[in-house]
Design a protein that fits this description.
With about 800 residues, the protein is α/β, with parallel strands linked by helices. The protein is about 50% helix and about 15% strand. It has four domains: about 100 residues, Orthogonal Bundle (Helicase, Ruva Protein, domain 3), CATH 1.10.8; about 180 residues, P-loop containing nucleotide triphosphate hydrolases (Rossmann fold, 3-Layer(aba) Sandwich), CATH 3.40.50; about 160 residues; about 240 residues, Ribosomal Protein S5, domain 2. It has 29 helices and 33 strands. The protein has an eight-stranded mixed β-sheet with strand order 1-33-32-29-24-25-27-26, with helices on both faces. Strand 32, helix 27 and strand 33 form a beta-alpha-beta unit. The radius of gyration is 48 Å and the shape is elongated. The two termini are about 60 Å apart. About 35% of the residues are buried.
């Protein structure tokens, strides 16, 4: 047992590191502080490029996980090779499956620009060639030649038909043949009146003319085809002559890419096959749209590998999508509407995502695993992925991916995935753990100060004094809850610096001092402590009954902590115990009302067994005990009140009153040893607030476990009260030490005789238990005695 002095509770900071006038004199370094373990794990994981060595980063929010990981990846990525560009182009053999082609970084953009230029040059060259006089002259000569041949063909037909007594006439509906008599056409009436043998002769000659006409038509159609083919060949020849040099230039520029050369050859052939459509203004755009290049991934701006942080990892954002546009009320798409996802943009580099977000969006986690296992990224809209799409969409060629994925999440998320998803172990073999605290020493304190300097420069804040930096370091100790540990929650430290800077600015100061830091902390707490103030008010008004003066039997002030997310505070709670004759047992009213958790139930069972071990070595315990947390209606969990419950029970049994001016916290094991608990600073401050509001008398204080002394990072007002001996803190190691503080009586050590010294608390407990047992046994004995008499 030890009554703590001001020196015991005050935080001892390294003095020599604060030998500076202002933060401006401190070298600014942007470095990751206190995370050596995490850095080494990241370094090791990033150095392995084998499949499956992706990284899962754990640690509390605010420790700089995301920022530090991104900075580290960017530093490493600068020295890595820049990955290839990727383009999608039209597949002339199968338009629904566009080609994916990779080119060196920058060549993708260059090729796209070259193709755009090529299309413009093709259009200009063809227009010029086909509008030239030479072309018109050649075409006219060809057409004249075939016109002459057709004219000769028809002239021969007319002459041959005339020899056979027929006239051949070309009409809008076809070719008509009319028989001649005396070289004059005859009418149907005349033909009917002709003798039968004449009519038969005319019909026979008509059949011969018909065959001549059919042969002439066949030859005419053949001549038309020959003309068309010759014109087409001439067009191709002219086109090839006009654009040949253009293609030679671009092929030469990209000769290192076999697939680009193959693609350009197909483009050239398609241009030649579609000359007339290209020359038609209405159809030209439809042809040229096939020659567009979709610059899918452009790494021309990169120096090194990409580092992509996906803040909104929906399915389409990560794995890409195929967009549609409405044309005349119809949704249409093509390969130029294929959009990359972050998995493609991070190809050859790193992709950072948050675990909760990855699991929140449908099909993202499942598709990510499949992509990493297969090593290729397939672009498919989510409606197609789940089989709900009825629209036909392009099926882009898959792209191989070599992306190192870094997922940031909580420890709970890591173990959930590790235990329930077998693929997770195969894909995320590296775990990087960010610590929430670091040791307080000269080196780390100096790093803390350098971090402060970095934030001051980053946000262009006012200068900070050495005393202000001391208060910031103390705040870091308070965040960690340990006088020997500094918190690595640099997000809160940064917020404090910015807010303290504003406090000083509001006072028109040029230097932020210690008082500004304290005021910023106070203002930050004031914004979120409304619930605490309401509780305190209810206690002071007597709505929540808590005594801080006098002594009571079977009653003690326990201490609890309320966690509100953005703020936690301690407050006292009255714990009462009552005893009555009966079989041994501790009735926990909270448990019976189903208002306690498993840990609290375990603590009550520990208390019950401690009582049996401590006081029932000679005489069985023949009484029942009830314990209640008065005016507590919420769910109760934890064992930090087990020491207070034990003291209340011992007081109720022994009829020895307990001081109400002292509150108690601490966990107890079956040996009566006091174990450390959490939230000790908040609990001490919670009881101090009530006592200070009612007026400190010098009798008020708190009992804590000895193991929690290092966790006492207290506010200045409490330290001052301890220094002035208006408030006290006792550190205890076992129940007996706490008994003596709370009762001003000796607890009593067990003698060799198996008894406790007279008039000690433990002696009074044993005597009371013996008395109650005798009372119970006495009743039973009288019944047996009367029964024997009756038998005689």
């Amino acid at each position: 047992m030890k009554k703590l002095s001001f020196r015991d509770v005050d935080c001892s900071l390294p003095k020599k590191v604060f030998n500076f006038k202002s933060i401006k004199n401190i070298k600014c370094e942007d470095e990751l502080i206190g995370q050596q373990r995490a850095i080494e794990a990241l370094d090791f994981g990033l150095s392995i490029r084998a499949k499956g060595y992706n990284i899962f980063v754990t640690g509390p929010t605010g420790t700089g996980r995301r920022t530090s990981v991104k900075q580290m990846l960017e530093k490493i990525a600068k020295n890595m090779p820049t990955p290839d560009d990727w383009i999608y182009v039209h597949n002339f053999d199968n338009p629904s499956e566009p080609w994916a082609i990779n080119l060196k970084a920058g060549d993708g953009k260059r090729f796209k620009e070259s193709m755009e230029k090529l299309v413009e040059e093709i259009s200009a060259a063809l227009s010029k060639a086909f509008e030239s006089e030479d072309y018109s002259k050649i075409i006219s000569e060809i057409e004249d030649e075939y016109t002459k041949k057709k004219r000769e063909l028809w002239e021969n037909l007319v002459a041959q038909a005339k020899e056979l007594g027929y006239l051949v006439q070309v009409t809008p509906t076809g070719i008509a043949t009319v028989p001649l008599v005396d070289d004059k056409p005859i009418t149907p009436e005349v033909y009917t009146n002709l003798p039968e043998d004449v009519r038969k002769d005319i019909e026979d000659r008509g059949l011969q003319v018909k065959h001549l006409v059919e042969k002439a038509l066949q030859k005419s159609r053949k001549l038309d085809r020959e003309l068309k083919e010759k014109l087409s060949e001439q067009d191709k020849y002219v086109a090839l002559f006009a654009i040949g040099n253009l293609f030679e230039e671009i092929v030469k520029a990209f000769s290192n890419y076999r697939r680009i050369t193959e693609y350009l050859e197909k483009v050239k052939n398609d241009v030649i096959e579609n000359i007339r459509n290209i020359l038609n203004e209405e159809k030209k755009e439809a042809v040229f749209s096939k020659y567009k290049v979709n610059l899918f991934v452009d790494n021309s701006h990169l120096q090194g590998a990409p580092v992509i942080e996906e803040m909104h990892p929906t399915y389409s954002n990560v794995f890409g999508k195929i967009e549609y546009i409405a044309r005349m009320g119809i949704m249409v798409t093509d390969y130029t509407f294929i959009v990359p996802g972050s998995i493609h943009r991070a190809n050859g580099g790193f992709l950072i995502m948050d675990s909760l977000d990855v699991l929140r969006y449908p099909y993202v986690w499942d598709t990510l695993k499949k992509t990493l296992i297969a090593g290729v990224a397939r672009i498919e809209n989510i409606e197609g992925r789940i089989g709900l799409s009825s629209m036909r969409a392009p099926r882009p060629e898959v792209i191989p991916v070599d992306t190192k994925v870094v997922i940031i999440g909580s420890e709970l998320m890591y173990y959930m995935l590790y235990n329930y998803d077998p693929d997770f172990r195969k894909l995320f073999k590296i775990k990087s753990e960010f610590d929430w605290e670091m040791n307080l020493n000269d080196e780390n304190t100096l790093k803390y100060i350098r971090f402060i300097s970095n934030i001051v420069n980053k946000h262009s804040l006012l200068d900070f004094s050495a005393d202000a930096c001391k208060e910031i370091v103390k705040f870091g100790l308070r965040l960690s809850g340990d006088k020997q540990k500094l918190s690595t929650n640099f997000n809160k430290i940064e917020s404090l610096l910015i807010e303290a800077n504003q406090v000083a600015k509001n006072k028109s100061k040029q230097l932020v001092d210690a008082q500004d830091i304290k005021e910023a902390i106070e203002k930050a707490e004031e914004r979120v402590r409304l619930v605490q103030e309401k509780y305190d008010e209810m206690i002071l008004r007597g709505n929540i009954m808590v005594e801080t003066e006098g002594k009571e039997i079977g009653q003690i002030n326990g201490l609890t902590v309320s966690e509100l997310g953005d703020y936690s505070f301690g407050m006292p709670v009255k714990i009462t115990a009552k005893t009555y004759l009966g079989k041994m047992g501790v009735i926990d009213i909270q448990r019976e009302a189903d208002l306690s958790g498993k840990i609290h139930r375990k603590a009550v069972l520990t208390l019950e067994n401690f009582l049996g071990w401590k006081y029932a070595q000679k005489t069985p315990i023949s009484l029942s005990v009830s314990i209640s947390f008065e005016q507590v209606y919420s769910y109760l969990e934890g064992d930090s009140a087990s020491l207070a419950e034990t003291l209340a029970v011992i007081s109720a049994i022994s009829d020895v009153p307990l001081k109400q001016s002292i509150a108690v916290t601490g966990s107890m094991n079956q040996h009566g040893e006091i174990q450390p608990v959490g939230g000790v600073p908040e609990k001490v401050e919670g009881f101090f607030r009530i006592c200070e509001s009612r007026g400190l008398t010098g009798e008020h204080g708190v009992i804590i476990p000895a193991a929690n002394v290092e966790n006492l990072v207290l506010k200045d007002e409490i330290l001052q009260a301890i220094k002035e001996k208006k408030f006290h803190i006792w550190a205890v190691s076992n129940v007996d030490e706490a008994i003596e503080i709370m009762t001003d009586k000796k607890a009593g050590k067990l003698l060799k005789s198996g008894n406790y010294p007279r008039n000690t608390v433990n002696y009074l407990v044993c005597k009371k238990l013996e008395k109650m047992h005798n009372m119970l046994e006495g009743k039973t004995g009288r019944k047996k005695k009367s029964g024997k008499k009756k038998a005689k």
